Amino acid sequence: MSNFQVVEHPLIQHKLSILRRKEVSTKEFRELVDEIGMLMAYEVSRDLPLEDIEIETPVAKATVKQLQGKKLAIVPILRAGIGMVDGILKLIPAARVGHIGMYRDEETLKPVEYLVKLPTDIADRQIFLVDPMLATGGSAILAIDSLKKRNANNIKFVCLVAAPEGVKALQEAHPDIDIYAAALDDHLNEHGYIVPGLGDAGDRLFGTK
Ligand code: PRP
Ligand code: URA
Q1: How do residues 25-56 score in pLDDT, each as one tens digit?
Q2: Could you give the C-alpha distances from 184 to 6, 52, 97, 143, in angstroms and in order?
Q3: Which ipTM did the prediction report?
Q4: DSSP-based helix, strand, coil % in the chain, nearest 5
Q5: What is the distance in A from the centroid of ligand 1 to the CA of 153?
Q6: In what order do the strands lie in the sheet with 183-184?
Q7: Element (H, E) at 25
Q8: What is the C-alpha to C-alpha distance for residues 89 and 96, in angstroms, rounded to an integer?
Q9: Quick count: other Cβ atoms within 10 Å of Cβ 86?
Q10: Does a cis peptide bond (omega within 30 degrees of 0) precede residue 150?
Q11: Contact criterion met (CB below 8 Å) for 122 and 144
Q12: How far is the CA of 206 from the centre of ligand 2 (A)?
């Protein structure tokens, strides 16, 4: 079974608590998602593989470490995932960015895919698949199906708020994918919203409702 980890860093927890407040403006919401995205990336990148390289400092030759392999890829699930990208790029500026566009049908709650645009060599890259919300899990499952269809397998799913229902569904569908969240909330309501959650992340991020 995949690993599910709540990232307990105090700065993440503090900023997430502000993010949840209903009076937070679009501007503040955007800034907080950006900051939390960056802090999550710091934790999620802990086990990236390193290799030894030889360099010369102004004083002597030295064997030092650098990240191994190709630059990683950040793949946001549109729309709300976009809010996490810039924060992660602040830490990993050379990362490639792919996009998977998906929305939840409001009646069925099933995700509908409308865009997939990925680096051509996505199969060779470590991927951070990002979306602030893991609710029923449908969007994350379909996005990972889509990545795996393109032979990408080295994927970490990074979200801010997860519902137990979504974690279970994602672990069952993709037991090989590790999941990182800033919080595990209580449950989903009858409209598929996470409780207590933070509302509709896409709308709050882009000011569309
Ligand atoms: C939200 C969110 C996730 C999805 C999670 O997107 O950003 O992608 O719902 O729900 P699920 O786990 O039940 O699939 P939404 O469909 O609202 O689209 P948007 O980001 O374009 O607003
Ligand atoms: N998508 C959101 O944006 N919020 C939720 O609570 C559930 C799905």
Answers
A1: 999 999 999 999 999 999 999 999 999 999 99
A2: 7, 38, 27, 21
A3: 0.97
A4: 35, 30, 35
A5: 22
A6: 133-134, 161-162, 183-184
A7: none
A8: 9
A9: 15
A10: no
A11: no
A12: 14
Residues 158 and 133 sit within 8 Å (Cβ to Cβ)? no
Query: What tens digit of pLDDT does each residue of 101-112 get?
Result: 998 888 898 999
Q: Whose CA is nearest to atom 5 of ligand 2?
A: 193
For 121-151, b/e burial (b = at least 16 CB within 10 A) is ebeebbbbbbbbbbbbbbbbbbbbebbeeee
Candidates 163, 157, 160; CA nearest to 37 is 160
Of 76, 96, 102, the C-alpha closest to 158 is 76
Q: Is 87 marked as binding a ligand?
A: no
Residue with tokens 């004083």: 59
Q: How far is CA 137 from the centre of its chain?
A: 13
The mean pLDDT of the chain is 96
Other beta carbons within 10 angstroms of residue 89's beta carbon come to 17
pTM given for the model = 0.96
By most ligand atoms within 8 Å of CB, the mutation choice from 193, 203, 208, 209 for ligand 2 is 193
End-to-end Cα separation, the chain, in angstroms: 38
Angle, CA 87 vertex, CA 39 and CA 45 arms, to 5°: 50
User: What are 73-95's pLDDT values in tens digits?
Assistant: 999 999 999 999 999 999 999 99
Distance CA 124, CA 36 (A): 27
